[in-house]
């Protein structure tokens, strides 16, 4: 995904896709020449140079709204002439054409019709990508010519292929009417709190929403486009006729009751917002809206926020005469399935323990949320962990039908121990009592599995073992996946995971990605493992070409990498933090790195920051460090050294801001430094520490810990059979490059006994 820039400003591709996959646009002319056209400067201050690149000398500057004559264009640059007769080259991104012989004069609204559409700085695929538009995005079409549309989006002007945008219903400009749900809602000039406030809206005000993206709504305000936070707008009927009296107090308001003692009331929807009061258990509150686990409530006549998990629904309608009572839908009787189950005052292990329940005890479950069951305990509400409750019959028993021959329960499965000695415990935690141990190859009956622990049948009783040390038993699965077994090497566990597809079919899928620019290789690198890693730094300014079938087959085949410890790093499970590397050890490594273009070593003394991030987001530390080293060229890339930006998405910032990007997140190949810096700014990565932590969180959520993609090894992050578009890198050598660095960092671990590898075995 990544394009790095070396000290001379040359661009280095370490190809990678993070936030977007580029749409394939038809090839047209590679450059355009203009004459007799005029343009308006859109940047606050725009450098004019003696050539068409940033490496040329600045001759003078032009200011926002200056009119210039455009005499020619080349690769995203316009040659311009000012009213004073001065000539030079300026970036076409910041000049909006005002006239063209082939332009149409009217502007219309159209909508993107493909999943991802490149918006470029000029009308050709040779121009750089400014941003990527997603399906359904509305754009203002200013003109159309030769298969390209000049469009405006989020204050930016650029070009898109006309065939990938379609006309929309422009009656009311395809708007949706919504209603403001808060007082003094800021109206801003752009979709971020960094943009200037140009007005305010009061509760109940109706607005026309043109489009919505990333939590911001583009609206019509005083005849112009503006932006407000989407969370403060509510849906209403589409009619814009004068309001009739409301049928109910507020359409989305609901009365709920507090289910915990001393519920904090905050000024905003986050624990980082200030606490403005507390609510006692049983207090009824009016809920205005709910989003991302927070409820906006009416608190002493003002809007405030509380955590939604501590509110329960109650009836808000006048009570009807009672009918004969039937059991509530939410109530259910369950039975305790563990020897001693803690009963707590709230749904968390940090809540106080108020008692315990013995195995076999029946409890009345009132509700269930986030792994906790609210129960009736001695006449009061209390909480227990849901995983230690099993269902029992709660309806009046019917006369039993004759039993059919019993079949094994769906939850039971035979598995085999894959480590030399596996502890058996009384509960699903390493703090639970050890009952015994199982040797490698022992078959066990697994009754259920939850949170990384398997409940098993041990000597006729229920017990628990860590799930990662159990593999499927070939003898009991009856075929399906080609499970290859497990082995223990120098204390590390290697699981061979059978796949239900062949290597050839996976190669075919990845070849489809080649045609879309999804798999490339450095044109200067030989097709061998060692040479590829060793030549990484030397290839900074060399070009990438499409990988051929033999390249894909080589890098996709695990057998080419499992013969060395370096190659095996591709298959290390990354979804857990392993202690054993100290900050001093990492600092010794970081401090030995050379300085970058700004004369600094950005990673100097940052060992503890990497440890904190890996531990906080529960991912492998050696991987996190190695990935950063690979993406940044050991801290020397432009994105890593930090870029000071003065505008965001074409809008000037209040003050220059320095941002960092160590993992190429959001850095689109053709405009890596610009798009990477914007992604860093939008994530608040304005310090080295914040960038390390935020990046670890982003990678964990989107790849390593994602339940949908399950990309918990470097190999799986790069090669994804089911979702070929969700691959972290386009460079086929990416896994191999990172694993070479990991092989050095991994030696800092004080033991290899807690390393687990997952090697795929193709059908």
Number of helices: 13
Instruction: Categorize the overall geometry.
Output: globular
Query: What class would the helix/strand composition place it in?
Result: alpha+beta
Cα separation of the termini: 30 Å
Q: Quote the beta fraction.
A: 35-45%
For the structure shown, list the relevant keywords.
763 residues; SH3 type barrels; 8 domains; 13 helices; globular
Question: Can you tell me about this structure?
Answer:
Residues 1-34 form the signal peptide. The protein has 763 residues and is an alpha+beta fold. The protein is built from 13 helices and 51 strands. The strands form 16 sheets. A 5-stranded antiparallel β-sheet has the order 8-7-6-3-9, with no helix packed on it. A 5-stranded antiparallel β-sheet has the order 15-14-13-10-16, with no helix packed on it. Helix 2 packs across helix 4 (549-556), helix 7 runs parallel beside helix 11 and helix 8 crosses helix 13. The radius of gyration is 30 Å and the shape is globular.
């Amino acid at each position: 995904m990544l394009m790095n820039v070396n000290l001379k400003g040359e661009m280095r591709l370490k190809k990678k896709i993070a936030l977007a996959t580029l749409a394939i646009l038809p090839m047209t002319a590679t450059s355009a020449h203009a004459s007799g056209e005029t343009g308006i400067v859109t940047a606050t201050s725009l450098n004019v140079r003696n050539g068409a690149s940033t490496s040329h000398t600045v001759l003078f500057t032009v200011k926002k709204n200056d009119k210039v004559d455009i005499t020619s264009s080349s690769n995203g640059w316009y040659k311009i002439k000012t009213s004073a007769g001065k000539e030079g080259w300026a970036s076409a991104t910041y000049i909006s054409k005002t006239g063209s012989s082939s332009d149409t004069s009217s502007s219309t609204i159209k909508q993107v019709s493909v999943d991802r559409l490149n918006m470029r700085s000029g009308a050709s695929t040779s121009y750089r990508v400014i941003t990527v538009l997603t399906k359904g995005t509305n754009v203002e079409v200013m003109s159309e010519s030769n298969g390209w549309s000049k469009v405006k989006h989020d204050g930016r002007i650029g070009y898109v292929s006309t065939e990938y945008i379609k006309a929309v219903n422009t009656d009311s400009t395809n708007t949706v009417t919504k209603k403001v749900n808060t007082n003094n809602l800021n109206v801003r000039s752009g979709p971020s709190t960094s943009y200037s406030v140009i007005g305010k809206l009061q509760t109940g005000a109706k607005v026309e929403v043109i489009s919505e993206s990333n939590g911001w709504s583009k609206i019509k305000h005083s005849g112009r486009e503006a932006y407000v936070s989407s969370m403060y707008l509510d849906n209403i009927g589409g009619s814009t006729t004068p309001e009739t009296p409301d049928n109910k107090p507020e359409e989305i308001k609901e009365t709920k009751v507090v289910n915990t003692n001393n519920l904090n009331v905050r000024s905003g929807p986050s624990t980082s917002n200030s606490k403005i009061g507390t609510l006692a258990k049983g207090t009824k509150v009016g809920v205005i809206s709910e989003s991302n686990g927070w409820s906006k409530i009416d608190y002493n006549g003002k809007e405030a926020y509380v955590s939604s998990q501590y509110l329960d629904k109650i009836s808000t309608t006048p009570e009807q005469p009672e009918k004969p009572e039937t059991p509530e839908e939410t109530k259910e009787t369950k039975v305790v399935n563990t020897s001693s189950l803690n009963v707590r005052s709230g749904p968390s292990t940090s809540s106080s323990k108020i008692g315990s329940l013995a195995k076999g005890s029946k409890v009345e479950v009132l509700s269930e949320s986030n792994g906790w069951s609210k129960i009736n305990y001695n006449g009061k509400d209390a909480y227990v962990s849901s995983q230690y409750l099993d269902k029992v019959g709660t309806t009046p028993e019917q006369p039993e039908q004759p039993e059919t021959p019993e079949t094994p329960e769906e939850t039971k499965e035979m598995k085999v121990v894959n480590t030399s000695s596996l502890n058996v415990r009384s509960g699903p935690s390493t703090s639970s009592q050890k009952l015994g141990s199982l040797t490698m190859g022992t078959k066990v009956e697994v009754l259920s599995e939850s949170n990384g622990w398997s409940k098993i049948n041990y000597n006729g009783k229920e017990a628990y073992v860590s799930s990662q040390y159990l593999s499927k038993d070939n003898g009991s699965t009856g075929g399906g996946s080609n499970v290859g077994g497990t082995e223990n090497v120098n204390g590390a566990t290697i699981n061979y995971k059978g796949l239900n597809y062949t290597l050839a079919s996976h190669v075919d899928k990845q070849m489809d990605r080649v045609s879309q620019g999804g798999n490339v290789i450095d044109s200067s690198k030989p097709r061998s493992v060692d040479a590829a890693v060793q030549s990484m730094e030397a290839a900074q300014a060399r070009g990438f070409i499409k990988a051929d079938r033999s390249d894909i087959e080589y890098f996709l085949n695990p057998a080419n990498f499992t013969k060395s410890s370096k190659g095996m790093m591709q298959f290390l499970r990354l979804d857990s933090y392993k202690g054993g590397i100290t900050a001093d050890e990492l600092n010794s490594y970081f401090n030995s790195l050379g300085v970058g273009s700004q004369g600094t070593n950005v990673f100097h003394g940052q060992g503890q920051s990497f440890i904190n991030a890996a531990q906080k987001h529960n991912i492998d530390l050696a991987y996190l460090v190695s990935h950063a080293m690979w993406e940044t060229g050991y801290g020397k890339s432009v994105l890593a050294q930090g870029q000071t930006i003065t505008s965001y998405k074409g809008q000037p910032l209040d003050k220059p801001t320095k941002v960092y990007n160590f993992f190429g997140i959001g850095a689109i190949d053709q405009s890596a430094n610009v798009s990477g810096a914007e992604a860093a700014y939008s994530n608040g990565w304005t310090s080295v520490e914040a960038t390390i932590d935020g990046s670890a969180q982003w990678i964990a959520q989107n790849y390593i810990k994602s339940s949908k993609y399950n990309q918990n090894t470097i190999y799986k992050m790069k090669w994804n059979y089911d979702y070929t578009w969700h691959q972290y890198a386009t460079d086929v050598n990416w896994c191999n490059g990172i694993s070479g660095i990991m092989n050095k960092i991994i030696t800092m671990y004080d033991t290899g006994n807690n390393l687990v590898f997952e090697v795929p075995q193709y059908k």
